[in-house]
Specification:
The complex is a heterodimer of chains A (about 120) and B (about 110). With about 120 residues, chain A is an all-beta fold. In chain A, about 0% of the residues lie in helices and about 55% in strands. Chain A has no helices and eleven strands. Chain A is globular. Chain B is about 0% helix and about 55% strand. Chain B contains no helices and eleven strands. Chain B is globular. Chain B starts with a strand and ends with a strand. The chains are: A mainly beta (about 120), B mainly beta (about 110).
Amino acid sequence: DAGVIQSPRHEVTEMGQEVTLRCKPISGHNSLFWYRQTMMRGLELLIYFNNNVPIDDSGMPEDRFSAKMPNASFSTLKIQPSEPRDSAVYFCASGALPGVKETQYFGPGTRLLVL
Amino acid sequence: DQQVKQNSPSLSVQEGRISILNCDYTNSMFDYFLWYKKYPAEGPTFLISISSIKDKNEDGRFTVFLNKSAKHLSLHIVPSQPGDSAVYFCAARRVSGNTPLVFGKGTRLSVIA
């Protein structure tokens, strides 16, 4: 299994531009999570999906952020318009919910720099 | 309000010695706890976990201890190796609530040869 795949691995953009981050979860996992990592706040959960349905998006910082999961094998996180404070590493993770032993498998992350 | 706290942002330990990483939580409904390890430019990877019905779980050099009354867990690495140098995240969840993991901010461990 290739694990969770994220693209791009690095993104540099200018303030005001649209950014789209992509994720392919592990086949068979029914839950997908988007996290943001910063020095100040650590790993923050932005949104998660269960069976392609958004369950909790309370972590999405602003309306500029949106996420979709059109099918079980693909999800996007979009920032429009981007701002310098959005610079962070964005991780996608997948797992199986519900389950007693929930282990989330993380992708390698997308490092975003907004100038 | 942070529900999972790792109060030490960094820790340095000499090779061969014991590393102890600490984690506190505030939500008494949490009943499953995990530790993740993260190397630079990689995503976090699962290391070890413990259910609230236990107070200790061991896997090779790694042992996690849970003190429910104190809402505290710790990860012990014995003996520490240079390859253990990474950021360690503590995470917790409420299994019955079908909720995702809540992570701490992480502790950067440096094992010095």
